[in-house]
Amino acid sequence: MPQQEMDIVGHLDELRKRLIIIITVFFISFVTAFVFVQDIYNWLTKDLDMALAVLGPLDIILIYFSIAAVAALTVTVPFIIMQIWLFVKPGLTAEEQKASVTYIPASLFLFIGGLAFGYFVVLPIVLNFLLTLGAGTFETMFTADRYFQFVLRMTVPFSILFEMPLVVMFLTSIGAITPAGMHRNRKYAYFVIVIVSVLVSPPDFLSDVLVIIPLIFLYEVSISLSKFVYKKRLRRLSMEEGTG
């Protein structure tokens, strides 16, 4: 077998191993979350002043599966990041390995921080606004399915989008992007942020604004972090050239 084909087979085998680990962790986390899904459900709905309705018996199991899946995904995220890093590690230089390994714990904190921001900040504001908007006009009754769809749309996107500064720092550290390029393309980035915010948030103006503002703030923070990492990279490259 040619060397190139052997390399491809080796990479595919390594990828399969990493995927099996991720799927196993997710499955174990899912089963564990499903065992305690009633407690999770009660915690998620403790601040509601009404009972959630279901339109059919299958809705109950689908809702429980959705809650368990999100809980399992939250637990699995650090394992996913670790397995991705282990998969790409052989192709990285020593400096890139050193830079990337420090981002693994930070990515977990940002993921959890995004979930917390969406759940504890954005969700209550949007929910209270919508309830106030319909007060005295409509009789409010939520189905469990619609409510949890709303909760997911207000939380999960933030957990992913909060990774932006970390991704920018890593790409800057390996020379893929520069802070000057981020400055130059700021207007395009803002346009993409607006589009993404409208797509992931519920269809009302307040929700859009509450998603757009944090993302623009994250982009500006990312530029500042990119400058910091870029300066360190230039110093490192200058020292390497001086000793070369």
Largest sheet: none
Beta-strand content: under 5%
The count of DSSP E runs of length 2 or more, i.e. the number of strands, is 0
Order of H and E elements:
HHHHHHHHHH
Overall residue-averaged pLDDT value? 83
Alpha-beta classification: mainly alpha
Inertia-based shape: flat
Q: How much helix, percentage-wise, in residues?
A: over 70%
Low-pLDDT parts are none
Helix count from the secondary structure assignment? 10
Distance between the termini: 39 Å
Radius of gyration using CA atoms only:
22 Å
Description of the molecule:
The chain has 244 residues and is an all-alpha fold. The protein has helices at 3-35, 37-44, 57-88, 94-101, 103-134, 144-161, 164-173, 179-184, 186-200, 205-243. Helix 3 runs antiparallel to helix 5 (103-134), helix 7 (164-173) runs parallel beside helix 10 and helix 9 (186-200) packs across helix 10 (205-243). The mean pLDDT is 83. One of its GO terms (molecular function) is proton motive force dependent protein transmembrane transporter activity. It is found in: Cell membrane; Membrane. The chain crosses the membrane at residues 20-41, 61-88, 108-130, 150-176, 188-205, 211-230. This is Sec-independent protein translocase protein TatC.
Short description:
By secondary structure, the protein is mainly α. The protein has helices spanning 3-35, 37-44, 57-88, 94-101, 103-134, 144-161, 164-173, 179-184, 186-200, 205-243.
